[in-house]
Amino acid sequence: MDSQQTSPLQELTDHRLTEGGVRLLLKRDDLLHPTVPGNKWRKLLPNLAEARAAGHTALLTFGGAYSHHLRATAAAGRAAGLRTVGVVRGDELRTRPLNASLAQAADWGMEFDFIDRGTWRRRMSAEVLAELRRRHGPAFVVPEGGSNAAGVRGCLPLGRELAGSGADTVCVSVGTGGTLAGLAAGLAPNQRAIGFAALTHAPLADETAALQREAFGRSTGNWRIEDRHCFGGYGRTTPELLAFAAEFEAEHGIALDPCYEAKALSGIFAELGSGEFRRGSTVVMVLAG
Ligand SMILES: *Cc1c(COP(=O)(O)O)cnc(C)c1O
């Protein structure tokens, strides 16, 4: 993906929407890359540019064993000719065969370092970063999820692309809040964003606001976090959620990410007809990946 690329907007035809009197458009950021989520590209591109401008030849970043962001960093580093190091949570994984997600990242050239959970909690401290650089050489450090000021600014065009869409509300699923922070800042004045939390992490709204201040010098008041549809936490699912996603794929031919978009979309459907999504309104759901 180059920085000029935009993703299509598609209207979803579904009897639940017809009955609720709501138009739902899908922002297909999942089509930006064949295997890694589009929002991860948007956040990584400006980080790659900063790394190169600072003369770095390696990227070092963090993630869990199934992290989309680690795979995205491996793919982006490979395309940009930068070495990549993935620091993975859980030193017990060191002696196990790589799962499919990490194996994909390894195929794209990523080297791994598996760290214990205590070190993980201090991963951005000067002390831990110095040790990681000692082991892996000088590297441009990108936080988990690619959510730093540069990454958030990379998601500003996502909001701008939706400013003329006619949407009243833009929904996006939230892991670190970086995508929401950037996109909300790009919306038109009469639009607002709802971030559906994919995990049970209380300070998500504070962290999103902090990311906006870091990226733009202020937090915009046009978004909120909805945490009633996180299905027990990150990576957790229920039979109902999996059935919803399977039915959606059968009907619409779109495979929803069960960690993120399936939760947000089922949340939207659950709240059709409530004050949140009024009859006659137009809603955009961002499919990040
Ligand atoms: C990472 C990711 C998100 C969450 O993005 P944040 O910027 O971390 O909030 C949502 N959906 C998909 C598919 C993702 O990979």
Keywords:
289 residues; alpha/beta; Rossmann fold; 6-stranded mixed beta sheet; 4-stranded parallel beta sheet; 41% helix; binds pyridoxal-5'-phosphate
Helix-strand blueprint:
Blueprint: E1 9-12, H1 15-20, E2 23-28, H2 38-53, E3 58-63, H3 68-80, E4 83-89, H4 100-107, E5 111-115, H5 117-121, H6 126-136, E6 140-142, H7 149-154, H8 156-162, E7 169-174, H9 178-186, E8 192-197, H10 204-216, E9 223-226, H11 239-252, H12 261-271, E10 282-287
Parallel strand pairs: 2-10, 3-4, 3-6, 4-5, 7-8, 7-10, 8-9
Antiparallel strand pairs: 1-2
Helix pairs in contact: 2-3, 3-4, 8-9, 9-10
Bound molecules: pyridoxal-5'-phosphate.
Pyridoxal-5'-phosphate (PLP) binds near residues 39, 174, 175 and 260.
Description:
This is 1-aminocyclopropane-1-carboxylate deaminase/D-cysteine desulfhydrase. Its cofactor is pyridoxal 5'-phosphate. Keywords: Pyridoxal phosphate. By secondary structure, the chain is α/β, with parallel strands linked by helices. The protein has 2 domains: 9-34 and 148-287, Rossmann fold (3-Layer(aba) Sandwich), CATH 3.40.50.1100; 57-138, Rossmann fold, CATH 3.40.50. The chain contains 12 helices and 10 strands. The strands form 2 sheets. It has a 6-stranded mixed sheet with strand order 1-2-10-7-8-9. A 4-stranded parallel sheet has the order 5-4-3-6. β4 (83-89), α4 (100-107) and β5 (111-115) form a beta-alpha-beta unit. The chain is globular. The structure holds pyridoxal-5'-phosphate (PLP). Pyridoxal-5'-phosphate (PLP) is lined by residues 37, 39-40, 68, 145, 147, 173-180, 257, 260-261, 288-289.
